[in-house]
Design a protein that fits this description.
7-stranded antiparallel beta sheet; alpha+beta; 38% helix; Uridine Diphospho-n-acetylenolpyruvylglucosamine Reductase, domain 2; 4 domains; Alpha-Beta Plaits; globular; Uridine Diphospho-n-acetylenolpyruvylglucosamine Reductase, domain 3; homodimer; 18 strands
Chain lengths: 471, 471
């Protein structure tokens, strides 16, 4: 780690320069410029254990050109810029550790055009996932990336979001065709076309997907759509242990059963869901499944999967074809958040995720459960088991410094464990402020390549400073 | 285009420096260093209309550490480096316009480890596609990216190759999990892990996929594998015109029929294939299809597809379940190259490709066919129609300067046409030396982002200079 480029300068404006910049922004944007404490705090870390670090101001642009003007002005005044979607980042990606301007994309929420035949659409970055799917429903199309929160497409691209349907439909990496981005110098660039594939030059689209706003601000996205499947079935089954649940999924994928969703809840999570939703499920590791396809296809998928379940000692394989029955089966999965909060009244939900090769998933989960017990934590586990990604929901008393220290140490060990298994310190939450040291542990000198790109494209460090990289 | 970083210096060694560098390489590598004319010419452009520009020397490294030593030494002596797989680049990616050293990866051809449960494997960059699939066959696994040529995995990653199965299994972009790369300064970096997905930092893997060796040399790849499907069926059907063939495919994809391969031959190509293989097919636009899945699944896919064919005026839908019958159906497609050469004895095969949104594919192909006629060319068309990518095989007399000028002008119009339809100037062949001006036309100022990255990672322009970017 010898030839690291200089650390970002975080905008580097003096206090007077910054004040003058904020005054110019106020003049430019009128009532779409805000500095009230409440609005600033709503544009900081909302959803994680990190301290709340509000920006100096919040702006609400309405066009790409306006974003470009804001970025140029902030650059001239050494003001950091922090892109903001709905604030659902789980690693404090929206915090403003160096102050600056939060760029709230919420008013750029137009679905610009849907190309039905090509199954793609162009949206502004502030369009949310549910908004887009409501827009598409009558066309028989949908956008499949589902990270849980009703996040904006821009935010989802920036954290390379994925979620429950990634095993079948891919992540944001796979579903973004092109972006319009405002670069750190305020220039506007289009990174791709609507062609489904291209070998024309460097993949700048994929560079911005997952860059967490540190290289520029995404203002428009062209994304792939999928046809709403003619039939959807759901299934649920429990297992004597995590290993047999994971082995079942490994075998199903190996045999090419195109599972659309496959979620694994550990027995702690099932217990929480039973308590919350009164489901009466067996308190054992449990798979929640969804199959998409033709009528005959989903039946065949469910039956084939059921055979593999039986071979692996799974029990009570139940499947449901109607929407109502399906929703009943998936109810517990959908209510995980609330069920967790009830597990330990007064606690907060501290979410963390890792991802490992699927062959190591059971080991990683079992070791992590032992660690949870030894550390004395309340922390159910839910896994997107089809791709080796799992979440630990640590229910923590965030005011208790000793407990928080134990939780942070636990999260550290979890990351180290995943990295040691040739996995990653985050499958879908991103680095933000929370995982910078683990990015280094995972990538080693490859972080130098990332920093060289950051320095080349954002030499003054105006774009979301203090994120991704250790300052 | 005002703030372009300085053009690459193409190594910038003086003649004396370079001579000294070659002498040091000879000492380092012994008989794995070659300067004979024949071997140098075999390591230049082998497959396109571009002039042959051999390197000064060819080296045959056996380890990543040896590649790193070669890169460091070449850097010290201002010698350009050109990575070489099997030389099947169609845009002269292997040429050495500034001289330098061709780094032949052919001896780094070990399959290092296959992780069956995780369905991934780690290979050296010189492993070829057929070699890998032969290695995997007994495990019931395969690597799906099939660009036609028996290319190396390193070369395929570098040009973001795809081919006939991309509509179902994705391109190299989708199937590479991690890379080991030697950077332009000779440092060795690992760009990812074996986790199926990650949100940890910038996607350096995707930056190297498609960089055509201009950012470093790929020495190892971790790639995704797929289970050999239990059943494979093939089908063939002809259409009154290109539009109805394209509409059929659009509808099938819309309905979620997971077609594994779908190739469209125009009537000129069918005529050539009939003549070469004696197939007696109707000389009309023809789809060649392959379906992968369970026994019942492939039957359902073929039947559903057949119904759509009938709805669109397609005729003589024939499908085959046995390997033998399937091979017979696909024979014509496999023999396209030879069939084309027979169309015009003495001519060479000048391959070019573009990719457009699928809704524009019929228009683009029809306009291109008119252009072919008006230009007086012999040029059959084959399309990977599932993703809007098509190839024009111009059968040209490369010694005839006037004809070559007409062919180049035709290719220029083809690129402009695709770009105007929101498509790309190359779906899978890459930029190399042939499409640099169209990269600019397609990407505009986004090329500045690419050049800034090139300048940051390879400040002395040692890596494959004269490719991708206009010098």
């Amino acid at each position: 780690m010898t030839d690291a480029p200089p650390a970002p300068e975080a905008g580097s404006g003096t206090a007077a320069m910054r004040r003058a910049g904020l005054a110019r922004l106020a003049a430019l944007l009128g009532d779409r410029f805000a500095t009230g404490q409440a609005v600033r705090e709503q544009h900081a870390n909302l959803t994680s254990w990190h301290p709340v670090q509000p920006p100096d101001a919040v702006v609400f642009p309405e066009t790409t050109e306006e974003v470009a003007a804001i970025v140029r002005l902030c650059g001239q005044h050494g003001l950091p810029l922090i892109p903001f979607g709905v604030g659902s980042s789980l690693e404090a990606g929206c915090n403003a550790p160096f102050g600056g301007v939060s760029v709230d994309m919420g008013r750029m929420n137009a679905v610009l055009v849907v190309h039905e035949e090509d199954m793609d659409c162009v949206v502004q970055a502030g369009v949310t996932r549910n908004q887009l799917n409501a827009h598409l429903r009558d066309l028989g199309l949908f956008f499949p990336v589902d990270p849980g929160a009703d996040a904006t497409l821009g935010g989802m691209a920036s954290t390379r979001a994925s979620g429950t349907a990634a095993v079948r439909y891919g992540t944001m990496k796979d579903n973004v065709l092109a972006l319009t981005v405002v670069m750190p110098d305020g220039s506007v660039r289009k990174t791709g076309t609507r062609a489904r594939k291209s070998s024309a030059g460097y993949d700048i689209t994929r560079l911005f997907v997952g860059a967490e706003g540190t290289l520029g601000i995404i203002t428009e996205l062209t994304v792939r759509l999928h046809g709403i499947p003619p039939a959807v079935t759901a299934a649920i089954c429990s297992f004597p242990d995590l290993g047999s649940a994971c082995d079942t999924v490994i075998m199903a994928i190996r045999l090419g059963i195109p599972v659309a969703r496959v979620e694994l809840l550990d027995e702690v999570q099932v217990r929480a869901c039973n308590r919350h939703s009164g489901l009466g499920l067996a308190e054992r590791p449990t798979l929640f499944l969804e199959f998409h396809g033709s009528e005959a296809g989903v039946r065949e998928q469910a039956e084939s999967f059921g055979e593999i379940v039986a071979d692996h000692g799974g029990g009570s394989f139940a499947w449901a074809e109607t929407t109502e029955a399906r929703n009943r089966l998936w109810q517990a999965r959908h209510e995980v958040y609330w069920a967790c909060l009830e597990l330990r009244p007064g606690s907060k939900f501290i979410a963390t995720d890792v991802c490992v090769p699927i062959s190591r998933l059971a080991d990683c989960m079992v070791e992590t459960k032992r660690d949870i017990e030894a550390t004395g934590l309340v922390a159910p586990i839910v896994g997107h088991v089809g791709d080796g990604n799992f979440h630990v929901s640590v229910m923590g008393m965030v005011e208790d410094a000793e407990e928080m220290a134990r939780i942070k140490a636990f999260i550290g060990r979890l990351n180290e464990r995943a990295i040691a298994m040739d996995g990653t310190c985050t499958g879908e939450h991103g680095i933000g402020q929370g995982k910078q040291e683990y990015l280094l542990r995972e990538h080693g000198d490859n972080v130098l390549t990332m920093r060289a790109i950051k320095a080349a494209l954002d030499p003054h460090g105006v774009m979301n400073p203090g994120k991704v990289f250790v300052a």
